[in-house]
Structure formats: C-alpha cells, structure tokens
Amino acid sequence: MTAPTRSGRPDIGTLVSLAAVAYAALFVAWVAWGGGTTWQRTVISDAAMLPMTLGGAALSWRASLRVELPEAVRRSWRWITAAFLAWWAGDALWLFYEVVSHESPFPSAADAFRLSFYGLMLVAIVRAVRLPSTAGMRATLAIDVLTVSGIGGATTWYLIVRPLAGDTHASFFEAALTAAYPIGDLLLGVAISVALFAGRGRGPGRPLRLLACGAAVFVVADVLFARLYLAEQYDVGDWPDAFWMIALTVMLLAANAQHSAPVTSSRSVRASAVTRPFFPYAAVVLGYVLLLYAAPRESSQSAVVLVLVSFFVTCLVVVRHALVLRENVRLTEARTRLHTIVDSSSEAIFATSLVGTVTSWNRGAEVMYGWAEAEAVGRDIRDLIVPADLHEEIAQTLEDVKRGVSVKLHETWRRRKDGSMVMVTVCYSPIFADDRRVVGASAIGSDLTEVHQLAAALRAALSRAEDALAEVANAESTSRRFLSDAAHQLRTPLTSIRACSEALALADAAGQRTDLLDILVTESARAGSLIDDLLSIARAEHDRLVRKTPVDVVALCRAAVATLVPDESPIRTSVQVAGDAPPVVELDERAVSEILSNLLTNAKRHAVSCIDLFVTTTSTCVEIAVLNDGAQPHPAEYERIFERFVSLDGRGGTGLGLAIARAFARSCGGDLVYSDGAFRLRLPLSGQIGQ
Question: In the chain, which end has fewer C-beta atoms inside a 10 angstrom radius, N or C?
C-alpha cells in the first residue's frame, strides 16, 4: 500500500489502511452470516460506516497536504474530504433518527447530506482528471461520456425511476427522494466515464483508478438497494450495506495511495493518450440487450423510448469512430514529423527498455557512436557504448527512471564502436504509457569534443592575453623606473651646471672663472653623453627595423678597435679568429658597430694592459668574445651589470653602455651575455655571402 518509513516501520496511512481492510472484511462476513436480532442488526449497520468515513476523510485531507502534488490534485482531495464528511454526517443523523429517536430516517435531513456526497465526488473526480490536449481527442471523450451516460440513464430510468413513478404506496416526496439516489449514481457514472476515458490524471494514475472503482461499487450498492427497496425485500444489514462498506474502503485506500505514490514531472515524455474504445461499444451492446429484454414485456411507449435511446447512442458511436479515425491520421502524421525531427537531429537520441535494451536509435547516435541502427537496436546499452567502469552509473540511472525521475544533464564518458572514448553530456527521461506506467527511458547526448577544444583555445587565448597584460604592466613599470633613474642621473650634472653658472655670475677673478668654466664644460659633456645614451637605448628598444647588409665581421671588429684604442695607447689589443675565417654575412652593421663601441669602451675603462677579441663562427651564429685583464665581476653580478644606470666600481660612465649593447643585440635577434670572463655577443646568421 505504501513504502515503509525511514525507520523501517509502516507509516500511519498504511496502518489505517490495513485496519480498514480488516474492518470491512469483518463487516462483509457479518452481513453474509446474517445473525443477530433486528435491533442488533440495525445498530451495527447504522454505526459501522462512521469510523470508515472518518478514516477516509482523515486520509483524504492528509493527501491534500502533500506539497509535491499539483495544486489541482490537492484541491480535488479537499473535495473528497468534504464528500466523506457529508456521508459521515448523513450516517450519524440516520443512526440518531433510527436508534436514539426511534423515528423513520427516510426521508429526513440525513438524505440531504448523503445526496451531497454524489455532487462532491463528481467535482473531485473530474478535477483530478487532465483532459486531452487536442480538440479531436476532447470531442471523442465527450462522445464516450455521452454514450455511457445515455445508456446508464436509460437503464436507471427503466430499472428504478419508472417503477418508482408507478408506486402508489410511496408519497411524491419519498418517490422523488428515492429517485434522487439513482440520479446521484448517474452523476458518479459520468465522473467514472471521464476518469476512464481521459486516460491520465494530473497526479499518479493508481489513486484515480482506485477512486473510480470505489465510485463504481457505490453505484452498484445504490442500484441494488433501490431494487430491493422497490420489491420490499430490503432489510437492515443486507448486501447493499456490504457494498457501501467496500466502496468506502476502496476510496480510503485511494487516499493513502495518493499520499505515498511517486510524483512524476509533468514535463516527462509520455506516450500518446488513447481513449479506451471498449466501454462505448459495450454500452451500445448493453442498450440493445436492455431493448430486447424490455420490448416483449413493456408497453409500446416504453419500447419506443428505449429504441430512441439505443439509436441515439449508436449514432454517437458512429461519430466517435469517425473522429477516432481522423485523430489516428493526425497522430500518425505527428509521429512521422517527430520521427523526422529526432532522426535529423545532430544530437544522439535513443530509447531503451527499463533493463537497458536499445529500442530506438537515431542518425545522430549513429554518427556519434559509430553503430548503425540495425546493429544497436536489441543490444544492451551497457555492452554497446558504456565503459565497464560506468555500468553502475547506468544501473542507478535506470533505477531512477523506473521511479519516474528524470536524470539531469551531466558529463560522462562513452565508448565508440572503434573503441575510442568520447566525453558527452547526457540526460535521461522516463517514457510513460497511457496509464502513467514507466515503460522505458529516453536519452539525449551531445559530443563535447569540439566544446573542449574551444575551451582549450579560449584558455590559451586568455593565457596569452594575461601574459600580454603582464608584459604591458611590466613595460610600464620599467619605463617609470627608467624615467626616474634618468631624471636622477641628469639631476647631478644639471645641478653642477646651475651652481657653476650662479658662481660664475658672481666671480671676479679670472682664474676662478676659468675653473668654473672647466667644470661647466665637463658637466655639460657628462649631461650630453647621458642624453646620447638615453637616445641610443630608446632607439635600440623601439626601432625594431633591422637593416641587414653584407658585413665582414673580422674587418668590422678591427675597425672598431682601431677607432677606440689607437696605436699609441698603452693597452695592447688583438682580434683573433677561432677556426676558419668567418664568411661575409648579412648583419645590421650600424647596430653591431654600436655594440662593439660600448663593449670596447667598457673594456678600455677596466683593462690593465690588454684587450682581446675572439671571433667564432658556427652553423647558426657568429660569436664575438671581448676580454680584458682587468678586475672581473662576481658571478652574482653577471646579469646585474646589464641593468640601466649600474656601475659596479663607480669608475665613470653613465651605467647605460652595457644596457644599450644588450638592447641592440636583442633587436638584431641575438643576445649579449657575460660568461667565463668575457662579454659574448651572439648574432644569428641569416645568410652567407662568401669568403
């Protein structure tokens, strides 16, 4: 009846349902036994319904409080609660009149409460049913309801209403009230027809079917009571009471089933709802059977009425059949369109049974996984595309689908026919039959290969952008530091020039003026040299155009040595070639001359007695090594000496020469480093001209 609670014990609804079933079984057994005095049977039959209706009202109200249910279903169960309470009030008044007041309970106020039960149940059942979505199916439903209602009305009129009209012993009010119950049964029949023919409810289908069954048993009890009452054969504690008890019990079970049944999403995949064709045709057969039975026994007037009703119902069935044929054509066309859409989708769409057997396989699945439809259908999905380590995942997914739960979109791995793996996003949804049973699972998968490639490209682009931003920030920081250092270096000669200029304006002696002018010349030259170096380094860093010409490297080195270290200098110089003589190669002669000038100027400043240049050529570059016999920097300072405004020993210079030389070397595609006691200029070879 319902699942156990987390503690392992059944909930209160299950206990009440079990008690109700046992209680109803005892009551039916008592009715079949037929023992006891008339007074005892009166008390028992009148009081027995009270606890059952109260239990049904309690469980119905409990079902209406379930927040997972659609609001329309919750309101429906509130109507059912009111119906149970109305019947309980009628039974209570009936018991009071018959047992306490010793008055006849029929007709009385108890009948008003009991009759309201039918209207409330009609509203409740109809509100719990979701009508078909198309006009054709709604028209078919209306014809089905009219067919069954027509035959039911004719049967009720023939068996109950017509005999009551001819009963001379009953007053008009008694006859009308007696006929009101069959009319209430007719209303319940309409509700049952709507519930059965609509094919699906707003909530789980099992509670609605139980509710319809309970209403049907109620109709049987009322018809049996009316026939026994007309034949003056009804006695308290008779079979109509047993059927009423069974009907109330089934409705109580429906309330408990509504509270415990799983709730499925209204957006889940459903099979097409098809109305059940058996009942309208059965109604027509019943009408003609009634006509054949009554025609020889009744007057011609009664027979004409039955013939007209049978003919009307037959026409309804013919119209229904035409509507069904047209609706079938529409559904076939819709199914064809849907199949075309699914088959043309680039997504992998397939369906499986609840045990994992593939039942459909679209073209997108063929492309993604490599299996043709004929190869895939009938195979287990786990053996087809699921890696062995993910079989448990599929098993859990199928279990969730069996419960009517959709599995959300998630990333996972699948195996192609050729054995390669592909990462996909996939989601699963339950497939429902007309009676809302889960009959299979549908899956939609997307290949993430291109998405991951795009994500990798975006990450790479983002990384490059971040590197570029970092480079820009670093360049800005370097520029700010360079400007600060340049301003600091220029401030010293400018301050001296200003001070000398002010002193020169006040000086009187010629000797003093001569000294001041010497200082002005020296500081001006220093400032000019600093400005020239700043311009050189700016040109090296920002003028990226390399002007290559054929250059004799050895001749270029000898010319630079001759220019910066004249023959009369006490420092000995040499240009040596390691190995074969280097070829004439294409280099930027202006940039290389600037580099050699800075390197020789630095060597001349620190050398004690000699400066040597070694020229070496490899298959990829020309290396010029500049050595001197002066003091060598500490290994920790090998990179620092190339920074701007750095002079390790403070022996003159602006501290920009080596920075300028490295900037020019790198602008030519080479580099300038200090290693093994020598400055090493490496320049790439772009082409050899000849010896």
Answer: C
Instruction: Check the CA dihedral 93-96-98-99 and report its sign.
Output: positive
402, β-bridge pairs? none
Under DSSP, the state recorded for 233 is: -
Q: Is 90 exposed, middle or buried (0-12, 13-18, 19+ CB in 10 A)?
A: buried
Give burial (CB, 10 Å; 0-12/13-18/19+) of 98: buried
Tell me the β-bridge partners of 415: 421
Strand 610-617 with 572-578, pairing: parallel
What are phi and psi for residue 568, nearest 5 degrees?
A: -75, -5
Look up residue 216 and give its amino acid.
Answer: A
Phi, psi of 615 (to 5 degrees): -110, 125
Residue 43: burial class (beta carbons within 10 Å; 0-12, 13-18, 19+): middle
Backbone angles phi, psi at 69, to 5 degrees: -80, 150
C-alpha span between 361 and 374 (Å, rounded): 9
Number of helices and strands in the chain (H, E): 20, 14
The Cβ-side half-sphere exposure at 331, using a 13 Å CA radius, reads: 15
Sign of CA dihedral 347, 351, 356, 357: negative
- The three-state secondary structure class of 573 is strand
- For residue 86, the SS3 value is helix
- Percent with pLDDT over 90 in the chain: 18
Dump strand ranges (E) for 29-110.
none
pLDDT value for 268: 38
pTM value is 0.50
Ramachandran angles phi, psi of 647, nearest 5°: -135, 110
| Matching residue, tokens 């008009």 | 172
The strand order across the sheet containing 584-587 reads 549-552, 584-587, 688-690
Q: Report which DSSP code applies to 390.
A: G
In the block, residue with structure tokens 């682009």: 461
CB count in 10 Å sphere of residue 688: 13
CA distance 398 to 353: 9
pLDDT tens per residue across span 462-492? 888 888 888 777 767 766 666 665 665 566 5
CA–CA dist 279, 281 (Å, integer): 5
d(CA 273, CA 196): 12
The position carrying tokens 């045709």 is 281
Q: Cβ neighbours of residue 119 under 8 Å, at least 6 residues apart?
A: 184, 187
Place of tokens 């210079």: 653
Produce one character per residue of 472-491: b if its CB has 16 or more CB atoms within 10 Å, e if not.
eeeeeeeeeebeebbeebbe
The whole-number pLDDT of residue 687 equals 47
Residues ≥6 apart with Cβ < 8 Å to 143: 280, 316, 317, 319, 320, 323
CA distance 473 to 406: 51
Rounded CA-CA distance 236/233 in Å is: 10
**Residue 688 pLDDT grade (very low, low, confident, very high; cuts 50, 70, 90):** very low
Q: Write out pLDDT tens, residues 374-386.
A: 999 999 999 999 9
